[in-house]
Amino acid sequence: MKTTVIYHSADYDGIFCREIARKFIPDANLIGWHFGDKPLKIPDGPIYVLDLPLDEPFGFKYKAGDKNGPQHPPGLVWIDHHKSSIESHPKSIPGYRIDGVAACRLAWQYLIRVFNGQKDGKMVLPEKEDYLARHVSEPLAVRLAGEYDVWDHRGDGDVEFQFGLDANSSLHLQTLLTQDAEIEGDVIAGHLVDEGGAAMRCYAKRDADTMRSRSFIVEFEGLKFLAITTARCNSLTFTAKDIRETGHDALMGFYYNGSKWIVSLYHAKHRTDLDLSKIAVKFGGGGDRGACGFQAEKLAFIP
């Protein structure tokens, strides 16, 4: 029976999950899903859910500690890294989850073992420390995309790689998924880093101008957020004013899509101790400690 792969369609972590699945399960049915999309019908046969909570794509909701909640679909493998989902979902679900390690890196390690004939119960998979120390074997593109997604910025190419990907939207991503003797993928990834660095400098100037003219402070859930109204932002958008002297605790981008508010929360550089995912979960969303979001019909700070 055909395998179905459901992946997060809105960022490169999820997109690389899709490409990794395509590499190791070439005949799989690939379905992209993003928060706010309509729930999916649970398919027959083997299912992989990558870089998403297990419940929301299928239209139900797990609650932390609820042992009598919905049963996960049979034949399922769930690979994810979002703290809010890991804490609310049953630990018995087959798959591979580590808070703080992007799903594409987890998916590569899991599926390469499946490809080599290992079974879920017999796999020896890397621990979180192995990823943080870069002791795992993986394509450079997977590491760069993964470290960027969890904001593990070490100044050696993850941010530039994102800009390089954006500037080469027609690139066949499968060419990046090679390693060891097949070095072509790592060479191409290196070129993307170089090209992305130039694009990044242009965007940084534009974002600095935007922050100086359009940003403001919002008090929300007991914190002060450096905020901007925009449909496209990430933590780098705020760089020019993301300094302690601005007087904020965290970062917020938000906009109205015609029916509800879409809100993204990010760590400020000087307040990485905060767990912003608790705020996102409170309002029905989720994500990581330092990069998360939610949707709402009303926002308390907007009259």
What report would you give on this structure?
With 303 residues, this protein is an alpha/beta fold. The chain has two domains: 4-147, Rossmann fold; 215-296, Roll (Diaminopimelate Epimerase, Chain A, domain 1). The protein has helices at 12-24, 83-88, 103-115, 128-132, 140-149, 158-167, 184-214, 277-282; strands at 4-8, 29-33, 47-50, 76-80, 95-97, 216-220, 223-229, 250-256, 261-267, 286-287, 291-296. The strands form two sheets. It has a six-stranded mixed β-sheet. The longest helix is centred in the middle third of the chain and has 31 residues, at 184-214. The chain is globular, with a radius of gyration of 19 Å. The termini are far apart.
Biggest β-sheet strands, sense, barrel: 6 strands, mixed
Q: For the CA atoms, what is the radius of gyration?
A: 19 Å
Strand order of the largest sheet: 6-7-8-9-11-10
Tertiary shape: globular
Number-wise, the strands total 11
Give, in order, the helices and strands.
Answer: EHEEEHEHHHHHEEEEHEE
Low-pLDDT segments, ≥5 res: none
Distance between the termini: 53 Å
Report the mean per-residue pLDDT as an integer.
Answer: 90
Tell me the number of structural domains. Answer: 2
User: What percentage of the residues does DSSP assign to strands (E)?
Assistant: 15-25%
Might you state the CATH topology name of the largest domain? Rossmann fold
Secondary structure class reads alpha/beta
Separate helix tally = 8
CATH top-level class of the largest domain: Alpha Beta
Secondary-structure arrangement, i.e. CATH architecture of the largest domain: 3-Layer(aba) Sandwich
Estimate percent helicity.
Answer: 25-40%
